[in-house]
From TrEMBL:
Any Pfam family hit: NAD_binding_10
Annotated ranges, domain NAD(P)-binding: 7-118
GO cellular-component term (any): cytoplasm
Organism, scientific name: Aureobasidium pullulans
GO molecular function list: aldehyde dehydrogenase (NAD+) activity
Name assigned to this protein: NAD(P)-binding domain-containing protein
Length: 339
């Protein structure tokens, strides 16, 4: 199988490339890389992997590689990058062939934050990616990631027998990745660095809950889809691919204030801060004191990934998010020169 992979030097795509190289050396993989320095890193570690130089705005390069591939995988800011997803869609529609082509698109459960705050109509709802699929596929365009998801959904209905799509929507991703360039996630390392710098935690008032999943468990799910795509008969299942093929990827869920408290506790236990002080703030004050990223911690995104569990026999096997917090704290302390 020939795979065109966007995001090989990122956190999600880098971990998947590691797993693909380890488990399926027979796959022919081409990766989109924006510069020669990163290309050299990939080539040194994975000499069988082919390099296509370009970025998400390189429409001609993307189109050329899409036409050659049996499967396209996108995790290079894919949830919000309209340009690259349009390039993939246009190429798939324009260059018609008799063979089936698979497109696995990485989005995110940020979609579910829409109207999910206290007193809003979607507050408290846990979305099941099978039983709630009609609701999930009809979110308004203003919802996070929705404008890009719509491009993929349109593609799914264009030629469903030839173009087979799947939208993989991870919740908060945690854990150290196995990629070559970017190996850390966003949320927990950000909280850890902020706690270490200010010597205390900032936590949101109220209850704000998101699902979460280890990056290695996410890669295993994506690999399962790729292995199915490589098997012609199995790949024809309408439940696996197409307009309803949303895969929420979660191993559980956590309250953001709990995460902050655990980060503070680990930092204090390690002697990196003097107390376990946590300041509980409203959104305005939290953003003012901690920066715009703190607005993220005043959202809810609750999901249940039934599709992967039922159709792929997938279950998370990695340690829960709580078991990775100390490692994240120590990694950020090292970056800050505190060790």
């Amino acid at each position: 199988m020939k795979i065109f992979l966007l995001g090989a030097t990122g956190y999600i795509g880098g971990d998947l490339l590691y797993l693909l190289n380890k488990t399926h050396p027979e796959y022919e993989i081409t990766v989109l890389v924006r510069d020669q320095d990163k290309a050299a890193i990939i080539a040194a570690e994975y000499p069988r992997v082919k390099i296509a130089l370009g970025d998400n705005n390189s429409a001609d390069v993307i189109a050329e590689e899409v036409v050659k591939a049996d499967l396209i995988y996108h995790a290079a800011n894919s949830a919000d990058d309209v340009s690259s997803v349009q390039s993939i869609s246009h190429a798939l529609r324009k260059f018609s062939t008799d063979k089936s082509i698979h497109y696995i698109h990485t989005s995110g459960t940020g979609l579910l934050t829409h109207d999910a705050g206290p007193s809003q109509p979607r507050h408290g709802k846990i979305y099941n990616d099978i039983t709630d699929i009609d609701d999930i596929t009809s979110f308004p365009s203003a919802a996070d990631h929705r404008n890009v998801d719509e491009i993929v959904l349109d593609l799914a209905t264009a030629e469903p027998e030839r173009i087979k799509t799947a939208i993989v929507c991870p919740a908060v991703i945690y854990g150290t990745g196995r990629g070559l360039v970017k190996r850390s996630s966003l949320a927990v390392p950000f909280i850890a660095a902020d706690v270490l710098k200010r010597g205390a935690g900032i936590a949101p008032e109220g209850e704000w809950v998101w699902g979460n999943v280890h990056v290695e468990d996410l890669s295993r799910l994506t690999l399962s889809l790729m292995e199915i795509a490589a098997t012609t008969n199995a790949a024809s299942s309408t439940a696996l691919w197409g307009k309803d093929a949303y895969y929420f990827v979660e191993a559980g869920e956590s309250d953001w204030a709990d995460i902050v408290r655990q980060v503070v506790h680990e930092a204090h236990e390690a002697g990196l801060i003097q107390s376990e002080e946590v300041k509980y703030l409203n959104k305005t004050d939290a953003v003012e004191q901690g920066g715009p990223v703190y607005a993220y911690f005043f959202t809810n995104s609750r999901s249940r990934g039934s599709r992967a569990r039922e159709l792929l026999d997938w279950e998370p096997v990695q340690v829960g998010i709580e078991g990775t917090i100390r490692e994240a704290v120590m990694a950020e302390a090292s970056k800050l020169g505190m060790l």
